[in-house]
Design brief:
single chain, alpha+beta, 2 domains, three-stranded antiparallel sheet, 11 helices, about 35% helix, Zn_Tnp, DNA binding, Transposase_32, transpos_IS91, transposase activity
Length: about 375
């Protein structure tokens, strides 16, 4: 169901003033793409229903990964690919979080801060696996936001409960499979590895925040293992293509302010509302626009692309997995909003100059929907 209010509406309210908000050129390009999404500025296409004959017009999507309206199909494609790679083993959901003392550095050096988060997380898990003489695997997804759009960098990781030993055989991390590794031990190693890497990359900036980084324990959170391998992919699918805020969380927009829902996890996730001026809302949203070409979903160990190409099928055979063949992707045909049963087929495309003359001349009303 289409949301009544959108991030794009806030951007339109702000207008040209956005250029004076202190954002960089990449952030501005992203915001302009979101503002133009599914409007006449990006052109569009005309579709005809193969059942009732109704003719409708649709405007093109911006396809930007930060756009609230452009993530659904990407998510489904990602889930379909991962389902062919599952193993009949326990999977764990782990979250590695950076402390807020690093937020100021993340604003000015996001690529280094976030790359280092991926590296330190994987090296931490890899070291625990190495102690048990096995190669671990991990899928990690970067999120940078909290519920109030504040900066809160963390990795959502799906980790199989074991690894591949030197003989190429599967080995569980524990016989009971109740947990992967002790989280307190993971937290200490994670902090040490991250700080060592940050010190090597940005020594001056590291020294400025060193005391704050070591002042309190870092958070590594581990949830109970999933009920089945298939539920893993469906669960992670919720996280892979999420953005800082979805349109359905926005409850009102006026000439000055934006009001949106958020969950307050300090009081058991109670739903509350927050109101921000346009500029502050846009500033917070822009904090979560990732650097150009930054890879936010990464695969490691025996789940990396190189390992999967060479050895995954062999491992699945050893574990007696019925391998799902990749299904050829069918062209997406949206349903007709008029009769609800027919498929919409594209009959014409147009650019930002608008629909062709024959459509504007009245063909669009040749078949009307009846309530």
């Amino acid at each position: 169901m289409q949301s009544r209010f959108e991030v794009a509406d806030v951007l339109r309210k702000a207008g040209a003033a956005i250029e004076n908000y202190g954002l960089n050129t990449w952030q501005l390009r992203t915001l302009y793409a979101i503002k133009k999404c599914r409007t006449a500025e990006l052109g569009g296409h005309i579709d005809a229903c193969d059942s009732c004959g109704n003719v409708t017009i649709s405007y093109n999507s911006c396809r930007n990964r930060h756009c609230p309206k452009c993530q659904g199909q990407n998510r489904e494609d990602w889930i379909a690919k991962r389902e062919t790679e599952l193993l009949p083993v326990r999977y764990f959901h782990m979250v590695f979080t950076l402390p807020d003392s690093i937020n100021s550095l993340a604003i000015y050096q996001p690529k280094i801060v976030y790359d280092t988060l991926f590296e330190a997380t994987w090296e931490t898990l890899k070291s625990f696996g190495k102690a048990k003489e096995m190669q671990m695997g991990m899928i990690a997804v970067l999120h940078t936001w909290g519920q109030q759009l504040s900066l809160h960098p963390h990795l959502h990781c799906i980790v199989p409960g074991g690894g591949v030993n030197k003989n190429g055989q599967w080995q569980n991390s524990r016989n009971d499979g109740k947990f992967l590794f002790p989280v307190k031990a993971l937290s200490k190693v994670f902090r040490a590895k991250y700080c060592a890497k940050l010190k090597a990359k940005l020594p001056i900036q590291y020294e400025q925040i060193r005391q704050d980084l070591w002042k309190k324990p870092w958070v590594v959170f581990a949830k109970k293992p999933f009920g089945s391998p298939k539920s893993v992919v469906e669960y992670l699918g919720r996280y892979t293509h999420k953005i800082a805020i979805s349109n359905n969380r926005i409850k009102s927009i006026d000439e000055q302010n934006v009001t949106f829902d958020y969950k307050d996890y300090r009081v058991a996730g109670v739903k509350k509302q927050m109101t921000l001026p346009h500029q502050e809302f846009i500033r917070r949203f822009s904090l979560h626009i990732l650097p150009k070409r930054f890879v936010k979903i990464r695969h490691y160990g025996f789940l990396s692309s190189t390992w999967k190409r060479q050895k995954l099928k062999l491992l699945q055979e050893k574990l007696k997995v019925k391998v799902l063949e990749k299904v050829e992707k069918k062209p997406f045909l949206p349903k007709c909003p008029c009769c609800k049963t027919g498929n919409l087929n594209r009959i014409a495309v147009f650019d930002q100059r608008g629909p062709p003359a024959w459509y504007l001349g009245g063909s669009q009303s040749s078949s009307s929907c009846e309530n």
